[in-house]
Amino acid sequence: MSGTPPELPIVVLDALMPRAQRLVVNRRGSMVWEVESHRGQYAVKVGYPIEATADWPAQPWTALAPAREGAVLYRLGFDDFAYGEWELGTWNFQPWHEGPDLYELWRPCREPDSRTEPHTSAALGCVEALAELHGRGWAHGDVQPAHFIIGPDRTHLIDLALARGGRVPEGYDFPFRGCLVHYEAPEIARSVLATGEAQPTQEADIYALGASLLISATGWRAVEYPDDAPRPEQRQAVASGKRRPVKVHGELGELIDAMLSPAPEDRPTIYEVGKALS
Ligand SMILES: Nc1ncnc2c1ncn2[C@@H]1O[C@H](COP(=O)(O)OP(=O)(O)O)[C@@H](O)[C@H]1O
Ligand SMILES: [Mg+2]
């Protein structure tokens, strides 16, 4: 994927006939495009394998992620999406959701000497989006601030590529190897360190939601480790369960603290979080 500028696969061009397109991100084996077509605005995700680097082992599964997400969207009964294969991997498209993500939305709260408090209504929107998934028996596996898009009518929880809860075709499935370390629950970090894999759970999603709210509101990670520490060292810090104190005022702060409980069984459920916030 180096050298030539990235392009949309022909199959996707055929399906959507874009009037306009914009590359949103291209990183770690995944491209996302915003596409305008006669059918509407779509997010197009295109996966390709990544070769090994000094910091990363080869990750062939990134090629499968869009199709895996497509299979999850199908299981969950979404409409207006499609997925398939291209030369280097798989792709999907799904409706584009307009709006800032949680991290962008709460930027004013993170400014030095800011008096802006994080809005409970935004937190509640994120909780409702995750509750919808949990209510159907699924775990997301990759909850992070960038995955909550705060739209005018509702909040969308995107990137279901790692979600667990129903059958996914074997050819598109791959093991869960943890998520972004800032949002990884200690039990997930320990499992990834010990075996290279873990099981996404609703309890770990709650931890990730707590860490997402904390980092978006304050800029602080739930666990302290140096920015430049190698990933296993960051994971080790998370696995140890040694947390920073949560410095968010009021009910939201107390809730975040409970969501970040080291033992999964001590964390509130998403319904308990929603009840406490509303
Ligand atoms: N349906 C969507 N609506 C709006 N933006 C999206 C959508 N899907 C993806 N994006 C944008 O693309 C970024 C990456 O998408 P994501 O689904 O997280 O893929 P990956 O993590 O594999 O790169 C998101 O953080 C968001 O900015
Ligand atoms: Mg993502």
From TrEMBL:
Coiled coil: none annotated. Gene3D superfamilies: Transferase(Phosphotransferase) domain 1. Transmembrane segments: none annotated. PROSITE patterns: PROTEIN_KINASE_DOM. This is Protein kinase domain-containing protein. SMART domains: S_TKc (SM00220). Residues 1-278 form the Protein kinase domain. InterPro entries: Kinase-like_dom_sf, Prot_kinase_dom. Pfam families: Pkinase.
